[in-house]
Write a structure and sequence with these properties.
Layout lengths: L14 E8 L3 E8 L3 H21 L21 E11 L4 H11 L4 E9 L2 E8 L2 E2 H12 L4 E10 L5
Antiparallel strand pairs: 1-2, 3-5, 3-6, 3-7, 4-5
């Protein structure tokens, strides 16, 4: 789900990474070992130091800095690309009906793949950037199509279109 050219695609082995985007700092990636005694004990020691500071001062939470309250944007107002996988009857017109639902909700399809499975087909869509609310409405309507057996996956695509 991560494009080959994205920095997260190079993370392997026992390494974990977090990719962060911020207005002031741009793109950041934190990378480190996520498995094994050393990294685990380091994280545990940091948590114990925070707990001791909190116990001593009567505070709660992380002891490094104070976080400023920021407005939180509702998820329905966010945009992303989406990966949608569903099983449907492999019959003429079913794909057109499903694509029509995407279009009615202004969710543009970037790519589509169909794999036959006997009398059914697995349909895999990747969308262009779309509002979360539009994709949610699309999925609700697609689930109501008689020929659609089930919607298997709806995943946000990280690092896609900007």
């Amino acid at each position: 789900m991560v494009p080959v050219g994205h920095p997260l695609a190079s993370v392997s082995g026992s390494f974990n990474a977090v990719f962060i985007e911020g207005e002031a700092v741009g793109q950041l990636m934190l990378l480190g070992r996520g498995a094994g005694g050393g990294p685990t004990s380091s994280a545990l020691l940091g948590d114990l130091i925070d707990a001791a500071k909190n116990l001593h001062s009567g505070a709660r939470g992380a002891t490094v800095g104070a976080l400023e309250r920021r407005p939180i944007r509702p998820i329905d107002e966010t945009s992303s690309q989406f990966y949608v996988s569903l099983d449907a009857a492999d019959q003429p017109g079913v794909l057109a009906t499903i694509a029509g639902v995407f279009g009615r909700h202004k969710v543009s399809i970037q790519s589509m793949q169909q794999k036959g499975q006997g009398e059914d087909a697995r349909l895999i869509f990747v969308t262009h950037l779309a509002l979360e609310s539009a994709v949610a409405a699309t999925i609700r309507e697609v689930r109501d199509i008689e020929a659609v057996k089930r919607v298997d996956s709806v995943l946000r695509v990280v690092g896609g279109e900007e």
